[in-house]
């Protein structure tokens, strides 16, 4: 099992910044990748950014150049630095990880943290 706990959400004005954190605990040695997703009201959950075990990152086109995903391996924590925030970034942000388990890949989700960007 892997437990993911997000923090760092809140209310910010357009143009501002926030940093989200996701602390992982449990069976973390076999985590292959971690990612941030978001879900706005009435919309499907979408991938925002991801980072794999080798350190490569990927971003949704809508956040490229504004958001940065990073990790602190000793702290088992992944971060999402969000700059130049826009009202359309308002959503619940979820941390997700994939873990290898024998011949399967298990997916774990955090509880989510609300980000609200006011215009």
Could you walk me through the main structural features you see in this protein, from its secondary elements to its overall organization?
There is one protein chain. The chain is elongated and about 45 Å long. Strands 2, 4, 5, 6, 9, 10 and 11 form a seven-stranded mixed β-sheet that branches. Strands 1-3-8-7 form a four-stranded antiparallel β-sheet, with no helix packed on it. It contains no helices and eleven strands. It has 119 residues and is mainly beta.
Topology:
Layout lengths: L1 E6 L2 E4 L4 E9 L4 E9 L6 E7 L4 E3 L7 E6 L4 E6 L8 E11 L2 E6 L3 E6 L1
Parallel strand pairs: 2-11
Antiparallel strand pairs: 1-3, 3-8, 4-5, 4-9, 5-6, 7-8, 9-10, 9-11
Oligomeric grouping of the chains? single chain
The outline comes out as elongated
Return the structural class.
Answer: mainly beta
Find the count of extended strands (DSSP E, 2+ residues). Answer: 11
In helices, the fraction of residues equals: under 10%
Rg, Å, rounded: 14 Å
Mean pLDDT: 95
Q: How many distinct helices? A: 0
Distance separating the two termini: 40 Å
Stretches where pLDDT is under 50 for at least 5 consecutive residues are none
Q: What is the beta-strand fraction?
A: over 45%
Tell me the series of helices and strands, N- to C-terminal.
Answer: EEEEEEEEEEE
Main sheet makeup: 7 strands, mixed
């Amino acid at each position: 099992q892997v437990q993911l706990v997000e923090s760092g959400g809140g209310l910010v004005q357009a143009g501002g910044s926030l940093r989200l954190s996701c602390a992982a605990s449990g069976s973390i040695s076999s985590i292959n990748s971690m990612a941030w997703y978001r879900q706005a009201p009435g919309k499907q959950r979408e991938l925002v950014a991801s980072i794999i075990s080798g350190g490569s990152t990927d971003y949704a086109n809508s956040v490229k150049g504004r958001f940065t995903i990073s990790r602190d391996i000793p702290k088992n924590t992944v971060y999402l630095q969000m700059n130049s925030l826009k009202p359309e970034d308002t959503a619940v942000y979820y941390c997700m990880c994939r873990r290898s388990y024998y011949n399967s890949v298990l997916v774990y989700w955090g509880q989510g943290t609300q980000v609200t960007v006011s215009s």
